[in-house]
Design goal:
4 copies of one chain form a homotetramer. The first copy, chain A, is α+β, with helices and mostly antiparallel strands. Chain A has helices at 7-25, 44-63, 74-78, 102-121, 126-155, 221-229, 241-249, 287-296, 304-310; strands at 179-182, 185-189, 205-209, 212-215, 258-261, 264-269, 272-275, 320-326, 352-356, 372-374, 383-384. In chain A, a hairpin with a 2-residue loop joins strand 5 and strand 6. Chain A starts with 6 loop residues before the first helix and ends in a 5-residue tail after the last strand. The A-D interface holds A 81, 83-84, 186, 205-208, 210, 236-237, 239-243, 287, 324-326, 328-329, 331-332, 346-350, 376 and D 81, 83-84, 186, 205-208, 210, 236-237, 239-243, 287, 324-326, 328-329, 331-332, 346-350, 376.
Chain lengths: 389, 389, 389, 389
């Protein structure tokens, strides 16, 4: 899981990654750092502190002899799931934590950054470097969540706040049409190499795939509006059983963040409310909707293995692409001992794999073998649809 | 409902009341203004804005000819229940409203204050003065809620934030022992006079009461600990049916904000975590607990009529005192037409009356005929117990 | 609470009451005795067994020296709330208890009846007679519940089963129009005398009432349809806050058991589906609907004291009449020690008093001082509306 | 999906299968046919009627020219999920359907049986025979559910009813120890042949498997008690995240139907309460428990492909064996048009595959390629654990 990048690069990469989190927060007021309106979305302040806590708890406290923690309670306040490390603040109550305030969290970041830079300058061990690299990728994950969570919080405000007027993220077009044929055969799946990967991408293994054709482009807003106008949300036969229940109980009739105003479709974006472009790539739909759309089309979603087998021959990276593969361990998958081991394996049930990356993913974080995962009803990520026939 | 206080006093009272809301917020960071961790508790920023909205919506917009609202969306963001005035922001989502930010809300207050002062200086009509007086009392209600809501938010933070070190509010002692006997007879209940009262205190009416004895003092922490140590929370027979369900389902075993640390009781207060004083007055208990305690004692809670008949002869004002009276209309009660009419009558079901006032009630807001009301499970107010035998 | 009826009458009354329960079940198949589709509605078999259990547990086991219980587990299976008597079968699971089967429950009834008759023939003590009388009235209460619960179970069956074709219970008309004026003054409330009453009707006490006018008749189906057609269910201002939430969340738009078929209103009755008669008395509405209807009319519901003060001068008995009085203890009310003491007092919170009696109430069970009580959303009883102005 | 069995065999198989459902109900009273205490468990009467409805609706009504349905409402009362066929009775309300009664349902069965026998004697088309075969297997599925549902209903009765004293089903021992090694390679998965299979077993396809060792025996009660006594239910690290939430929220600490009485373990069986035999095969555990047990052992559960690759070389059939494979479509899976098409595909989300068959599975219903499926918290089936290392 450790890449062979040399130490100087680690220092540089660490500094850049840490700085990018701060850059993302530049448009925010102190007030914007606080809310957690849904359990699944954490406050910006928490993302800033939690990613910092990772470096302090997993590296500085363990590998720097005389390290003094910034604040004895922060470990409790800003860990996440890692139940092997003492009690944790209740996940659903993160929005009540106004203190430490934003300035104190930035001071916490500075303090940990300084100690980390000192450590990285001093030729740390391979074990430390492996954790640093994990910490960097961990922070990149939270950079994407920071944006999607903020978008969700802002979306609940009836005045539709603007994060950055030049940052709507959803109007990407630029797609290649057509279908890509992949032949039947044995394919190698999973990560192997000297770069970084998460534990759930290991170990590389062989799968046998029948032939299939996969679309070179993702489904557009216009295509999804056709589905809607054809009664897609009201037609039982397109939906999985749980999807149909979801549609009716939650009264779903459009993608998340969409509004129909005087007969025209708009979506709320980080740049405010903007018209829906027909040829832009659809976003913010659940697996249920992705599956129903594919059924309506007489097609289907790819499996994660099909996606990986085809990925090198097609463009991807605008949306997290729903696959019809459950998030399960690869052969030989083993949960690490200790807190880091809780990273991924615990969640391998009742979630679906999404492949690719999205417009909100930090540059350099994407990987062909990357396995993102969410429950089927997830919509607040930049999720999209790629079809297979 | 309109008092005969003359206009100059109104101006003075308006200015003082508005200033006191700001004073209460002095110890807060911008971050503290935001959270709404429970539906029942609103953010400080919302309290500041909502009380301002009342003056703008009910008075300035209606009675000042050329008045221009501060912001066209604020009416939507900061109204409360008043469904007769357009849509309202969902009550449970107040914690997601980071914008307008705190500074903008203070600007809103200044703008409305200025226009109100101009209006009050210009000999307004009796109708306006009646609304101003209502607005002042409305703001006082929210001043108390601001403190109790803030305490609740802070209590969810594992580091137990301090609002003001000199403001714990719960260590009041100073009580007179003994029992007060009230004789059988006819008593006049409800408000009559030239001061202010809420609609639910009207009209004055006669009730017949049998004789009873009422305690001159409120139940202390020490007395409640006796109940706890005698198995009070585990003994079915002391509890109403709904109370017993509540105790078991919520796993209640102590007053809200209490913690047992190394064998000693502490409570979280606005001054942080402090030891429980045995002779101080108990606070933060539900009606269920109040009723169970009284049953355990072989006594009972007063009715609101008994309380009012005895009030002039005893000390009160440290805690809201639970009565065993449902919150129902007095004879002849009539809901006003229009938005102000929604003030109280809508809530006259499945709530209990609390009488008196609390250490968090702004000076001058208390009244012998005052009827506060909450559901039986309410604990985040400064509620206490007075016994009758 | 013990009436002075002499023992022979008790024997006669006991036999008649026990026989009437059996009569009520004559139209039932074995299958009909089983379901409990909602927590609030118990199966017929449970009613038959529970009322029998009362006589066995409270009288035979305590007062008959060598009495052997019919089955050692029945005490556990067929008690109700009485938590002072060991564990009880979970209330919501009564519908899973297929064994003992119906025949065994009838054998249980016969066995207990025989022992009770023997006891009643042998000059029992006053203490026993008081319990017998309580048991008789207890069984009468369950006779009414048996009918209302059965109606509810049958109503969930899409083929609308018929209990008895001559037993629709809701088409009663026969009302006197006009208003009855009651003058201001002191009135005596509560039971006093040598007959039977429940503990919640004691003790007799004085109340002062302002003058009022009360309708001589109950609201008809036709009048309620006017309310519906005038948008009653869609108009916020008619409803209490909790009522409005209830209407929207439960999507309520008509009385329980009503169906609109090809433009005409029908209701499901124990005689099957029948057309709604315009001049028949409305039934199966919640307190919320009763209150909203009265508000729409510009009138109000009576208090329970007003009802009792007027009752001797008006006809009542077709419907349980909602009052706007919370179910609370009368002055001096004291919960009995022991299991019988759990009868009523435990439930004195968040319920409303209904006065009168209904078409389903066994003859002789009604009483001017009788206090029935249910939560505000209760609709499966034969509830109706009487207005006051 | 149609087997090549000749018509006479179909008639024989039809008669036998239909008779076996009746045999299973012989120990029941009329009352036992009614309850549905949980949404997932249907009443015996419903199973009898629903399996009959399948033959009437899918075959007789479509393929017999002058066929008159037994009762026009039964199609509505006794269909299940098949939403393409009109409205259906709400699944959760099956326990309220006392009428038609048990005798009428048996008359329904006789009527349909007679018409089916007539049809089968008259050289029906291949299309009809395919549906008959499907109907037979459908009824066998419901025979197993009838037993597991009945066990669940009976288990809620505090007197632990006995279905048949010779039918406890859980004390099977007779296992072979040791491990079976399966080599890396390509394996054929899925059904191919001239017998019957369900749509979810098609089409046959190739998978590549790494080598593994699979246990020849299932986990015993004794082994599971070791897990329990080693703190298995209290140790976070053994559990998937959702499993840990389930254990704590549902307060799970033992297999379903287990009771500890005076220090010894008992389980409730269809023969009543019996002691747990240490060397008998464990049953009634969820996927969560199966996974936690395997983790505690340092092993894992098989995938469904591993299971199928090994099945011909090992004994199976006592328990449904949890696999760590999500229930997803095989390559080329296609949902049929029409009502039969809703059979399986709708449910391919958030469920796990179980392989093998159980002691409650009717003889002849099991198949190496059979894919049973349930959500991870399912315990009322006869589920067991087979380990892989």
């Amino acid at each position: 899981m450790i890449s062979e990048t040399t130490p100087p690069d680690f220092l540089q990469k660490f500094i850049e990654t840490r700085a990018y989190s701060v850059t993302l927060c530049e448009p925010l007021n102190a007030e914007d750092y606080i809310p957690q309106p849904r359990d699944f979305a954490s406050p910006p302040k928490w993302h800033l502190a939690h990613t910092t806590w990772f470096f302090e708890e997993m590296i500085l406290s363990k590998y720097v002899a005389d390290y003094i923690v910034f604040h004895p309670k922060f470990s409790f306040l800003f860990n996440s799931y890692y139940q092997t490390i003492g009690d944790r603040a209740v996940r659903a109550e993160r929005g009540a934590i106004t203190r430490p305030n934003v300035d104190e969290v930035y001071a916490y970041r500075d303090y940990v950054n300084e100690h980390m830079c000192r450590l990285l300058t001093a030729k740390p061990s391979q074990a430390v470097l492996a954790l640093v690299e994990l910490g960097i990728h961990h922070e990149q994950q939270h950079q994407e969540l920071l944006l999607t969570d903020l978008k969700h919080t802002f979306s609940l405000n009836p005045i539709f706040p603007v994060y950055r007027t030049d940052f709507n993220l959803v109007d990407t077009v630029n797609q290649t049409d057509g279908w890509l044929r992949i032949e039947e055969g044995l394919y190698e799946i999973g990560y192997e190499g000297d770069g970084f990967c998460f534990d759930n991408e290991l170990g590389k293994h062989t799968v046998f795939l029948p032939s299939f054709e996969i679309s070179k482009s993702l489904v557009t807003n216009g295509a999804f509006i056709e589905f809607m106008e054809d009664g897609g949300y009201e037609t039982f036969s397109y939906w999985l059983d749980k999807g149909w229940t979801w549609v009716r109980e939650q009264q779903i009739s459009r993608p998340l963040y969409w509004y129909k105003i005087e007969g025209k479709w708009y979506h709320y974006t980080l740049a405010g409310l903007v018209p829906v472009k027909m040829d832009a790539i659809l976003s913010h739909i659940s697996f249920y909707e992705a599956h129903a759309f594919a059924t309506w089309k007489g097609m289907r979603l790819p499996t994660e293995f099909e996606w990986e087998a085809a990925a090198s021959k097609m463009n991807w990276g605008q949306r997290w692409e729903w696959t019809y593969s459950a998030y399960l361990p690869y052969p030989g998958f083993k949960i690490d001992d200790g807190a880091v081991g809780e990273y991924n394996g615990k969640f391998m049930l009742d979630q679906l794999v999404l492949r690719g990356s999205s417009v909100a993913t930090p540059a350099g974080h994407e990987r062909i073998t990357y396995r993102n995962f969410f429950p089927a009803n997830t919509r607040w990520q930049f999720n999209g649809i790629r079809l297979v026939k």
